[in-house]
Amino acid sequence: MSAGVKGKMVYSFEKPMWHNIVEPSVVQMTAEEILDSANFGGGYKMMTRPVTVELNGEQVETGDFAVVRGVSLDDPVERVFGYCTERYHPLQPRDVAHSFDVIVKQPAETMAFLGKGERMFISWKMPSFDVLNDQIDMYGIVSTGFDTLKGTKLFSATYRPICKNTFSAVEGWARKNSDGHLKGEIWTGKGVNKNILYDFRYWMAHVQTATIHEANLMEKFFRKLASTQIENDSEAKRILLMAYPDADNVTEFYPKELRQDKNESTFDFNEKQEALRQGIFQLFSGAGTAITPDYYGMFNSTTEYFCHVQPSKLPIAESVMFGGRQKATMQMVSVLNKLTK
Q: Strands of 110-114's sheet, edge to edge?
């Protein structure tokens, strides 16, 4: 599994990184200090240049522009990231880092450039909270895409981004858990907005001043799970069936020539669903680690199953972070969220 980090342009405060590209820092640093550090080399500049074509033996400007990344420490050539109109206003990595330092006013937790520099992210620690002696950590994240496609985003998550894969997990979690009230995906800005840096700073200030409110929202959700008891095995199995239902057999309206194959595949799918439900139920019934008889215990049984129990012939880290296992876990979260409203 590739980390997707540009060269050695990645920073983590204290906590080791699974990819071991660089050692974690033992010193807290601002975003601009990280950008000027040896591994980042000052970052790079973004610019636009007119696109030309040869017409009648002459080079003629088309009216479009190429989005160009300047040279960087590990890649001393310019790169084209995409194409745009004159309305596009690329942000500079330096401006993103400086705005973060001025507005957030606290050290970065992690920071990295991804790919060839098409994307940059900075995370910071938000207030943590405790649920039944489990500490839940929250992070604020700002990301900027320099390729005209991804824009600039502000969001929050319970994941700590440190590479392409963990960033994908963060972004996926935020998208699925957004509620329009400072939870999940909070703001997205596009480069065609000439005031994007101005807007970005105001939104970042808004997010930072609301971090306690954000943590309270998450704490309320997890505490509600912890306070909602599951009375018996039948209720636990009902919740599992809601999260991981069986597929219906095909009806007479399905072409009869295909019906047998379809029913066989449905049977196989339902067998797997039953095995999944039974696996989580066994953990919930006592085989799991410190499982409580409530919705929080069902949530922890589900995450333990997909992270440690469900068999696989391949490494599961990528799937747990943003693949099928992460999606399956979110199915349970969605059901528990609906049942507690």
A: 5-12, 110-114, 119-125, 139-145, 152-157, 185-189
What's the rounded Cα separation, in Å, for the pair 60 and 284? 69
Summarised one tens digit per residue, pLDDT across range 90-139 is 889 999 999 899 888 889 999 999 999 999 999 998 877 777 677 778 88
- pLDDT class for 70, splitting at 50, 70, 90? very high
What counts of helices (H) and strands (E) characterise the chain? 10, 11
Q: 26, exposed or middle or buried, with CB in 10 Å at 0-12, 13-18, 19+? A: exposed
The least confident of 65-79, 137-151, 201-215, 286-300 is 201-215
Higher pLDDT, 251 or 243: 243
Looking up tokens 């980090």 gives: 5
Give the burial class of 5: count Cβ atoms within 10 A of its Cβ; 0-12 exposed, 13-18 middle, 19 or more buried. Answer: buried
Q: Where are the domains of the chain?
A: 5-47+86-218, 228-339
| Number of C-beta neighbours around residue 62 at 10 A | 11
Q: Identify the three-state secondary structure at position 167.
A: helix
How would you classify the pairing of strands 79-84 and 134-136? Answer: unpaired
User: Which is nearest to 43 in space by CA: 91, 109, 2?
Assistant: 91
Q: In the Cβ-directed half-sphere of 316, how many Cα atoms lie within 13 Å? A: 15
**Where residue 322 falls among pLDDT bands split at 50, 70, 90?**
very low
Q: Return phi, psi of residue 265, to 5°.
A: -70, -35
